[in-house]
Amino acid sequence: MKGFSKPVEISIKYKGFPNQNDTFETQKLLDYGLQVGEAIQYEWFKKQGQSCKYFDNRSEFHKRRLYANGIQPLGKYKEFMAINGDMSYLNLDWNIIPVIPKFCDIVSNGLSNRDYSIKAFSIDPVSTDNRIKYRQMVEKDMRTKDILLAAKEHLGIDAFSVPQDKLPESPQELELHMQLDYKPSIEISQELAIEAVRQENDYKDTIETRIVRDLVEIGIGAVKHRYIPTDGIKLEYVDPANLIWSYTEDPYFRDCFYYGEYKNVNMSEVYKEFPNMNPEERERIESIGSSWNSYYGISSNTETNDTLDGKIGLLYFNYKTSREKVWKKKKSNQGGLKVIPKDIDFVYKGEGNTDFEKLTKIEEVWFEGILVLGTSVLLKWEVSKNMVKEKSNLNKVLPNYVVCSPKLYKGNIDSLVSKMIPFADDIQMSWLKLQQVKQRVVPDGQYLDVDGLVDINLGNGQAYTVDDALNMYFQTGTVIGRSSTVGGEFNHAKVPITEIRHSSGQEKISSLWNSIQISLDMIATVTGINQAVDGSNPDKYALVGLQKMAAYSSNVATRHLLTAMLFISKELSKSISNRMSDVLQFSETKQDLINKIGRTSVANLDEIKKMYLYDFDIFLELTPDEEERAKLEADISFEIQQGNLGVEDKYVILNIKNNKLAGSFLTIRKGRRMKEKQEIEMQKIDAQTQGNIQSSQASAESKAQLLQMESQVKLQVEQQRMQGEMAKMEREAELKMILMAKEFEYQMSLKGVEVESINKRDTEKEDRKDKRTELQAEQQSKMIEQRKNNTGAITFESSNDGLGSFDFGEFDPR
Questions:
Q1: Is residue 807 in some structural domain?
Q2: How far is 117 from 258, CA to CA, in rounded Å?
Q3: Phi and psi at residue 374, in whole multiples of 5°?
């Protein structure tokens, strides 16, 4: 290359997008790609008067960034302060008052400090089936809990599928258990893989920080992901000032059908990457650089380096279209089915033949192209390699760009900085005016009437001069004057020194300062960012709760920026997850990725190797901020004080990053603990009741025992008494028996005596009777004999009338 050709005239004419219903073979032609590139060029780079959509956007974004960094141009301020362009009488400090940078730092740093974790949820049929089986297994344990507890207690067999302390007790606990405790190893592996890719590309510390800054400053953030077989998955920051996109009213850019980037590239790099360009194309490229800059009025004084020699503007663009894929479905001789890919013009002639069938599918496809702006030179047009597809919807292809503008409306992008610019300008101009007023403020002075100082004699022979009067006045506050002139007339200047006070400057300074304060208040009003966020000027009379409410209000006002940041991170993580299949199947960096993940979880290496067989849904779990965490800790502490939670529950709940799940877990733990507490109270009551019963029983038993003992004692006493009485009675009986025996003996003796006496009496009686009988018989006989003998009377008196034979027995009773 000997030198650059002469500049050529730039003329960007209307060009519409080609028909997307053209065959895929037509879409792959360079002419089709050139028409797409020229249509995008016309939409973004057509010049209408002095405006151009792309350069207007870039200029506006550049302006916002200047204000956000406190380095905006001073031209408008100098025009405001100058008189007919003359500033020769101004001696001001032109440094910018960094008001907007403070607010930008507060918001962007606050967003960067919001931590989150990436969660992968497997949605493929195998994982879904495993999740259902696990849920059914837990439900079975819940239904048979009593039986399993009995088996564990009586047989020593732990048949629980889930640890007993983690077994849910209600459907709500089951749902929470499935979200918190059920985590297949493949999901853990996927999360580690995504985090490994993010760390390798230094996403959190560099790329995301710049995206957050863009969202705050210019109102839009963008990132790009690519797959390079030799390097793996690459994440790249995209400057929204260089980004182009199809018209959309969606803040998340989900309906865009093309994206692109404007890049200034060295011609040598272009020649190196595309060595097959023909001489005409080279000449056209060499001549376009200066012509392009002249056409758009870009000079070396602007914010870009577009005018550097040896650089040209290239448009790197992606374009989404669709294609139809055709297969021939054939039944084999063995009865199986075989699907064979066919060309789009495949004609099925097998009507009536059930062995053949034509299958078609419409799927999205992205093309990549590179157009040299200002020319009709298309350096590249081809189907994108390694397109991102979701296994759950293979017909849909995700773009390489993730873009979000939360305040997008009708193509206009709003931002916090754009809202603050008018008031920042007012503050700066008020500050400059304040300096000017301060420079023009006149100090207080003194008016001296010389006539009042004439011919004053101080008594030391010296004349009383004006200097003497001023020195005396300033040192002592005293001044000497004359009440009459030398001629004896009244001296109206008898007080020769009068104080002159200037107060006009104070009112202006106060007014300008109030203007600055009003502008600051307006910035807080239009952005929603109040002083409670940074605590730079807290109100000593405001309660802590009110200040927290004010800080919360500011967080709510900037919630859309947090949502945009999380959306970009989520979509990017989803794309990384989908690209993981390419890495694990085709990339040379497969083993390197496996090793990086395996350092964290060696046990999951086998799962990682077959991760491409699974499909995942990605979501972000936002860590609670300090206010939410403090409230949660306060609630936990209160419940612990009430005895509804244990200290061990506190750290389990705080480790749950999802605030909603943490609240649900707290409620369930509280309910379970209260139930346990109630059971313990019931056990205490039962134990106390049982104790009372046992105590009553013991008391009753004690009383019964006492009564029994008393009875036994009484019985024993009674028995002893009875035994004593019995012994006494026995003794008495014995004695009575003895006495009776004696008495009997005596009686018997007496009876014997009596009987003997009776017997003796009877004997004697009988004897006497016998004697009488004998006597009677003798007498009878004598009488008979007397009769017979007729003898005289017979005397029957005894002949023993003496006392010699006296016997008292005769007197015994008969």
A1: no
A2: 31
A3: 90, 0
Taking the C-alpha atoms of residue 527 and residue 560, their distance in angstroms, rounded to an integer, is: 12
CA distance 391 to 382: 24
| Bridge partners of residue 366, in order along the sequence | 320
Show the tokens assigned to 157: 């067999």
How far is C-alpha 46 from the geometric centre of its chain's CA atoms? 49
Best CA proximity match to 290, nearest among 83, 492, 5: 5
Which residue is it, tokens 């006494």?
A: 728
User: How many angstroms separate the CA atoms of 408 and 672, rounded?
Assistant: 48
What average pLDDT score do residues 270-274 get? 83
Contact 157, 134 (CB under 8 A): no
Distance CA 571, CA 577 (A): 10
For residue 465, is it within any domain?
yes
How far apart CA 548 and CA 532 sit, in angstroms, is 7
Number of domains the chain is built from: 1
Alpha-helical (H) ranges within 253-395 are: 267-273, 279-296
Counting other chains too, the contacts that 530-538 makes at CB distance below 8 Å and 24 or more residues apart are: 530/554, 533/106, 533/110, 534/102, 534/106
Contact by Cβ (8 Å): 450, 496: yes
Q: Kindly report the pTM of this predicted structure.
A: 0.73
Sequential DSSP letters for 567-578: HHHHHHHHHHHH
Of 138-147, 266-275, 312-321, 328-337, least confident by mean pLDDT is 328-337
Domain that holds residue 471: 438-557
Q: Identify the CA nearest to 318 among candidates 255, 265, 404, 246.
A: 246
The overall longest dimension of the chain from CA atoms, in Å, is: 243
Buried b or exposed e, range 344-373, using 16+ CB within 10 angstroms = eeeeeeeeeeeeeeeeeeeebbbbbbbbbb
Cβ-in-10-Å burial (0-12, 13-18, 19+) of 799 comes to exposed
- What does the block give as tokens for 134? 């696990």
Please report whether residue 531 resides in a domain.
yes
The partner residues of 266 in beta bridges, in order of sequence, read: 311
Q: Determine the angle formed by the axes of helices 504-527 and 99-112, rounding to 10 degrees.
A: 30
CB burial of residue 692 (10 Å; 0-12, 13-18, 19+):
exposed
Question: DSSP string of 266-285?
Answer: EHHHHHHH-TT--HHHHHHH
Rg (CA), the chain: 63
Q: What's residue 389's pLDDT?
A: 81
Token code pair at residue 272: 């190196």
Give the span between the Cα atoms of 107 and 415, in whole angstroms.
Answer: 12
- Residue 540 confidence (pLDDT) above 50: no
Residue 201: which residues within 8 A CB-CB, separation 6 or more?
207, 233, 234, 235
pLDDT surpasses 90 at 125: no
Residue 489 covered by a domain: yes
Angle at 331 between CA 330 and CA 337, to 5 degrees: 85
Closest by CA to 667, choosing from 118, 52, 176, 199, is: 176
Cβ atoms 127, 614 nearer than 8 A: yes
Residue partners of 349: CB distance under 8 A and separation at least 6:
none
Q: Does position 382 have pLDDT exceeding 70, yes or no?
A: yes
Closest-CA residue to 431 (of 64, 60, 63, 70): 70
Single out the residue of 92, 95, 73, 71 nearest to residue 82, CA to CA.
92
Residue 300 predicted with pLDDT over 60: no
- What pLDDT is recorded for position 4? 45
Q: What is the dihedral of CA 318, 322, 324, 325, to 10 degrees?
A: 40
Which residues in 293-336 belong to E strands, given as ranges? 311-331
Residues 6+ apart with CB under 8 A from 556: 528
The residue assigned the tokens 């202006």 is 508
As a whole number, the mean pLDDT across the chain is 78
CB 210 within 8 A of CB 622: no
Element (H or E) spanning 398, and its range? strand 393-398
Question: Which CA distances in Å does 380 have to 22, 37, 277?
Answer: 20, 10, 11
